[in-house]
């Protein structure tokens, strides 16, 4: 059953909602626009706030659904739920449907956190908002919020969730490696200033 949950969670996470919604709206392939990312921020560059918001909800939702469904099928076994959330996250970052070229995972990460521990999700979300408000760097906000998450799970003594969050945080840093380089050399674009503020994807 755990293997079935793992595979289902990955396949659910791999659904590229941004791509699907933009195509369904007759706007073309989101991968050829803006930053080329499939996430909500790049969808916003089409000028359709409704599509961007829907993408954000769906990309977050697939992480939450994977965790909650895994919980119901496993009598809320923390290890199974953690694996399901991580699998959905990996699916978004490396979707089989798109040749394993996906988004950066922040929205799916947040949805997974909401289902695993809403307190952790709220703190991480608060950190993202605070850093974004002060620095205007979406990528830095995402990186700091993700880095804090494993420590929050340690505080709550949730070891399975801690392990899953370490994996997801490491992948978020990996997926943001170009953003990190731009932050270091001072060329990262701030929120609302150009095509690179694509951390929520």
TrEMBL record:
User: InterPro entries annotated for this entry?
Assistant: G3P_acylTferase_PlsY (IPR003811)
Known EC number(s)? 2.3.1.275
Among the Pfam families in the record, one is: G3P_acyltransf
Q: Which gene encodes it?
A: plsY
Membrane-traversing stretches? 6-30, 51-74, 80-100, 107-131, 151-174
- Record keywords: Transmembrane helix included? yes
Q: What family does the database annotate?
A: Belongs to the PlsY family.
Please state what the protein is called: Glycerol-3-phosphate acyltransferase
One BP annotation, GO:
phospholipid biosynthetic process
Q: How does this protein assemble?
A: Probably interacts with PlsX.
Organism encoding this protein: Parvularcula bermudensis (strain ATCC BAA-594 / HTCC2503 / KCTC 12087)
